[in-house]
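Priority: medium. Attachment 1 of 2:
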């Protein structure tokens, strides 16, 4: 049989054999990106709260079971349904009073993805506090003392004891006042009843009524024991959880778990995994909260990783996953995954805004491979000076690390409804169409204004009166831009609380009028991140900060939340330029060059690859 005919007969059959929950299967140069990998990326990232709830709850239930086995009382640890509902209703009411203009359900989704996740996490927090950090420090287990001592010696313990004593004294005084009021209340009622009877007698006698008596105040509700400051308790709770994580052993994809398993937990680090969570089990729990954008981002990230790994393997410098993990652990102080959650994690999830430590670990393999490849090319040449790649990179790095600034305004035509915390149906198409129309209107106004000015200047040169009605109608370009940004910019700032301490307005978008910003600060204001730049292969921030001419409007650019139009108002040069004669500065330059050059390398690999399913 003809070989091509044989392939034609076989290909449809093999293609049909590959099924995907996400539509067309994703392949990179014929290599399948498995559904389990996509699901696990999302579970580790935006759906992490559901996974962490299971991990913490497993450790919590283990402690409760230990107490039951030891014959200790545990009934008081779990609030009754009535008590939980009262606490839940109080928190919702307090939020509504502080932020009366916000949609509670939208804000819960913003923080917890849905109301049910919030309720189960709140209940777990209550049980956790009753178990490990009850109000009275004398009831704390040994692990709580150990956790606080590990952080700050006896300082935090003494502070919590003093706080509890102050609250106890306050409660006792309030209770005494309440008891006095309760005791005197019957006598006050009797006095009121006598006064009311006299008033009725006078009315019956048709005497002058005088002032109507008022009912006396009752003792009110019985005072409740005052709660510890919520932020203080949250910090205390996290310290105890960190200690639990250190006594346990957690495995994820970083540790080589197969794609079908998302996490395994050894509660006492004895080598036995008491808990294992399957990827599909977790996916069934979270899938109703997952957006199409999150699925698309996961596919694109994993596809870019695969394309870059294939290219590096072909060029024979891709290191093994085990080598990458060992290097990452070593640079994190040798403490492994548990430490990575709070050290490497601060860099990965905090500074670089990767969805998870696990996704950063996948990226780190590429980064470390690339580092070992390019480091020989950026050492100082024998004749002195700096290597050629660094010389080219110095201009860019100087503007960032030398603290250059740009004052810009950004008009986001949003595909996302920020106040309601959800994507607009058909939002990307609507955003693109509206952004294109806005750009056309800007260009039309600019042309009309230029014609208006030309006609006015010609009239002045000829010494004749200028008739504005004879020229095209147009606005000053900056005024027109300001009008458009007020009308169409989709950036949103949450309101300040109606009661209580005001929140910080440092990160407020101000309708895209960002003012003077350093490059990394501007990146966050626009809504980008190092992770977004790695996945997309380009950066709106960098175009604005480095390339766009002052006074011009550029775009529309597709970005994280829609389409963006940008205007540069002014630039300020670096105030503290790098000194390449200083080895410390030269080290910073090298460290900045390596991940920056990796972005271009991976984008080239992705562009050259045959990618299906996106």
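Attachment 2 of 2:
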């Amino acid at each position: 049989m003809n070989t091509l005919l044989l392939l034609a007969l076989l290909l449809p059959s093999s293609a049909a054999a590959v099924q995907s929950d996400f539509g067309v299967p994703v392949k990179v140069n014929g290599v399948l990106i498995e559904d389990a990998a996509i699901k696990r990326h999302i579970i580790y990232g935006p759906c992490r709260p559901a996974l962490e709830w299971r991990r913490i709850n497993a450790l919590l239930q283990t402690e409760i079971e230990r107490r039951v086995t030891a014959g200790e009382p545990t009934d008081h640890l779990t609030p009754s349904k009535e008590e939980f509902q009262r606490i839940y209703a109080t928190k919702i009411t307090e939020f509504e009073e502080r932020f009366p203009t916000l949609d509670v359900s939208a804000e819960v989704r913003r923080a917890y993805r849905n109301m049910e996740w919030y309720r189960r996490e709140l209940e777990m927090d209550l049980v956790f506090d009753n178990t490990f950090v009850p109000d009275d420090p004398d009831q704390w287990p040994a692990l709580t003392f150990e956790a606080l001592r590990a952080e700050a010696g006896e300082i935090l313990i003494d502070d919590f004891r003093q706080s509890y004593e102050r609250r106890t004294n306050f409660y006792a005084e309030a209770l005494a006042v309440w008891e006095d009021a309760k005791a005197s209340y019957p006598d006050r009622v009797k006095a009121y009843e006598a006064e009311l009877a006299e008033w009725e007698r006078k009315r019956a006698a048709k005497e002058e009524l005088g002032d109507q008596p008022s009912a006396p105040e009752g003792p009110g509700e019985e005072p409740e024991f005052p709660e510890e400051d919520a932020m203080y308790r949250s910090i205390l709770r996290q310290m105890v959880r960190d200690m639990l994580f250190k006594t346990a052993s957690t495995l994820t994809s970083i540790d080589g778990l197969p794609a079908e398993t998302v996490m395994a937990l050894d509660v006492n680090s004895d080598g036995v995994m008491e808990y294992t969570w399957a990827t599909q089990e977790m996916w069934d729990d979270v899938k109703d909260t997952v957006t199409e954008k999150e699925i698309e981002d996961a596919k694109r990230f994993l596809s870019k990783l695969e394309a870059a790994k294939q290219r590096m393997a072909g060029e024979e410098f891709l290191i093994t996953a085990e080598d990458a993990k060992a290097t990452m652990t070593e640079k994190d102080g040798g403490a492994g995954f548990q430490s990575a959650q709070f050290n490497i994690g601060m860099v990965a999830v905090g500074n670089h805004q990767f969805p998870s430590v696990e996704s950063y670990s996948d990226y780190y393999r590429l980064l470390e491979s690339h580092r070992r490849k390019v480091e020989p090319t950026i050492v100082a040449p024998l004749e002195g000076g700096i290597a050629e790649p660094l010389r080219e990179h110095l201009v860019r790095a100087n503007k960032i690390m030398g603290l250059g600034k740009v004052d810009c305004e950004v008009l986001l035509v949003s595909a996302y409804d920020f106040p309601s915390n959800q994507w607009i149906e058909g939002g990307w198409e609507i955003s693109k169409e509206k952004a294109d129309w806005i750009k056309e209107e800007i260009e039309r106004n600019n042309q009309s204004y230029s014609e208006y000015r030309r006609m006015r200047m010609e009239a002045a040169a000829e010494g004749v009166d200028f008739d504005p009605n004879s020229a095209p109608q147009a606005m000053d370009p900056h005024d027109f831009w300001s009008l458009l940004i007020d009308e169409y910019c989709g950036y949103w700032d949450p309101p300040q609380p109606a009661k209580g301490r005001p929140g910080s307005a440092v990160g407020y978008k101000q309708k895209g009028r960002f003012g003077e910003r350093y490059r990394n600060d501007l990146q966050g204001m626009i809504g980008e991140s190092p992770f977004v730049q790695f996945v997309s292969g380009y950066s709106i921030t960098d175009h604005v900060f480095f390339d766009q001419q002052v006074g011009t409007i550029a775009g529309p650019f597709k970005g994280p939340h829609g389409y963006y139009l940008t205007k540069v108002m002014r630039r300020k040069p670096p105030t503290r330029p790098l000194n390449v004669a200083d080895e410390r500065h030269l080290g910073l330059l090298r460290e900045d060059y390596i991940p920056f050059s990796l972005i271009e390398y991976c984008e080239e690999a992705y562009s050259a690859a045959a990618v299906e399913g996106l």
